[in-house]
Specification:
143 residues; mainly alpha; 4 helices; 29% helix; globular; disordered C terminus
């Protein structure tokens, strides 16, 4: 299996994707998944079998990997999910840009809203999300 390095023409995370190319899922579902440790298969891979897709036989979604790198969430995810370099030419540079592309609406999300969407996606897998604050840097306060 060869890992793609660019989003395919139907990838919801690719800038060349048609508007509303979300496969029936909401933008909120995609936002929750992109911020979590989800292996997202390439929907155009010849061995793609929806939820039954085998990570050993199906390429990871390059668009998702690039979008995560652009958002700088890849630093917090398992290395196996970080297969592509950031590229604002190939994928969106923000959640707002992603949502605007697919819905036509300018909508910004707070960190709390994104964490809520992540929790929803993790709960579907019966996984509980517990956030642990990072240690304060000297002289800095937590929010």
């Amino acid at each position: 299996m060869k890992q793609h390095k660019k989003p395919c023409d139907e990838c919801p995370f690719g800038k060349i994707a048609k508007v509303k190319t979300l496969g029936g899922a909401s933008v909120e579902t995609y936002i929750g998944q992109i911020h979590g440790p989800f292996w997202l298969p390439c929907h155009k891979d010849k061995n793609y079998a929806e939820k039954a897709s085998d990570p050993n036989k199906v390429s990871q979604c390059a668009g998702a990997s690039i979008f995560r790198a652009n958002l700088e969430v890849s630093d917090f995810l398992p290395n196996v999910l970080n297969v592509c370099e950031p590229s604002e030419e190939l994928s969106f540079s923000s959640v707002t840009e992603f949502v605007e592309h697919h819905t036509g609406e300018h909508r910004e999300f707070t960190v709390g809203e994104i964490v809520g969407l992540l929790r929803e996606e993790m709960a579907k897998l019966k996984v509980r999300v517990c956030l642990v604050p990072s240690p304060n840097k000297q002289g800095e306060d937590h929010e």
